[in-house]
Amino acid sequence: MATANNILPTQAPEPGSFRLIFSLGTAGFFSGLLLVVVFLYTSPLIEENQKKALQTAIFKVLPDCASFELFVKGPSGLERSISTDEKGVFAGYDKNGTFIGFAIPAEESGFQDIIKVLYGYDPESERIIGFEVLESKETPGLGDKIFKDEEFTEAFRSLVVQPIIEAVKKGKKSRENQVETITGATISSKAVINMLNNSLSEWESSIDGYLETNTEPTR
Amino acid sequence: MKSQESISKNSEEFLKGIWRENPVFVAVLGMCPALAVTNSAINGLAMGLATTFVLFFSSTLVSLFRSFIPKQVRITTFIVIIATFVTVVDMLLAAWVPDIHKELGAFIALIVVNCLILGRQEAFSSKNPVGYSMLDALGMSIGFTIALLSIGVIREILGNGSLFNIDLFGQNFEPWIIMILPPGGFLVLGFLLLCFNRVLNKKSS
């Protein structure tokens, strides 16, 4: 008996469930408190960064873009917006103030989390002319190819959107409105294509309406 | 005499993580970030520093409250503490260095499941006084950072011909693309493991 007692560690008395809940609750409470403090400090900085990233993305998806304006959906179609916080589309102009196209933000759930993108749309030729992923948590090495795989992103330099953008398997592209999905990242690539189709159908009518009333939206 | 002993114990706890028990080269822990984000020197360094932050504060807290945390819920409590600091570092990186934050992406959140961190809490901080735990955490994370940085440096030089985004060889260098792709991570890690263990073996024999 004595040897058995020596080998086995002396068991501390089992703590009650209150003690367990109390210690976990305390840990949770303080970690929550810390997170709130850090969040309050970082969220304005992060928003600032996102705005800057959005601006650089606009210049990327609209080649030759020199300035842009935000338009939002109003009661009478597309309207210029003074504030920059609203959800809308950005009209891009080149150096001479000529209209180039719209930069449109869009989002959709991907494989992991919501994917946020910005794409350039030229309503005259009805083509997508640029594409940039703003935010994505897709699987590294697979899903993140939606912005790391150059073959995939290249497809969005000039992509016909009528009647609809179609997803096809690699090597099967035969028409100008088709995009080859990435092997191993089918869900992520299809999410991007669905997102573009949904976003286009959401904005199409108001963009068309706006272009009819203002033949050339100049500054 | 006693102070000398405590100094040598201090430096022992600190140095073991850098050399004799290096988390990457000896214990082979935390392989996921060591392979995945080391395609450039700056990414490896950033990942190492983020892990340092999380490991240091988690170890300090776990060691401070080690007698308060009941054995039955210790792992859960460790994870709560670790996850808190990972979220903090995630938000701070997004606020201060958005480019690196975007590059590291999902791997920052994945620091929570880095077995190096939970392993140190379970094996060391929950059993040792705060001072030793802090030294242990610092040594281990410096060892981890050095490992990630050296993998990143080798892969960036060979795969991109640059170091910290500064071009080293000029136009004539043909980059060894595979080194910045995932297989390059395995190749470099394997090579470094070989060198490290050869040196360690020679020393002991």
What does this molecule look like?
The complex is a heterodimer of chains A (219) and B (205). Chain A is an alpha+beta fold. Chain A has one domain (41-213). Chain A is built from five helices and nine strands; from the N terminus they run ααββββββααβββα. In chain A, a hairpin with a 2-residue loop joins strand 1 and strand 2. Chain B has a two-stranded antiparallel ribbon with strand order 1-2. Chain B is built from nine helices and two strands. Chain B starts with a helix and ends with a helix. Chain B has 205 residues and is mainly α. Chain B has a domain at 16-152. In chain B, helix 3 (41-64) packs across helix 4 and helix 4 crosses helix 7 (115-125). In chain B, strand 1 and strand 2 (166-167) form a beta hairpin. Classes of the chains: A alpha+beta (219), B mainly alpha (205). At the A-B interface, helix 2 of A face helix 4 and helix 6 of B.
Topology:
The complex is a heterodimer of chains A (219) and B (205).
Chain A lengths: L1 H6 L9 H45 L5 E8 L2 E4 L8 E5 L5 E11 L4 E9 L4 E9 L9 H4 L1 H5 L4 E2 L5 E3 L9 E3 L5 H28 L6
Parallel strand pairs in A: 8-9
Antiparallel strand pairs in A: 1-2, 1-3, 3-4, 4-5, 5-6, 6-7
Chain B lengths: L1 H14 L15 H6 L4 H24 L9 H23 L1 H7 L1 H4 L5 H11 L4 H31 L1 E2 L2 E2 L14 H23 L1
Antiparallel strand pairs in B: 1-2
Helix pairs in contact in B: 1-8, 3-4, 3-7, 3-8, 4-5, 4-7, 8-9
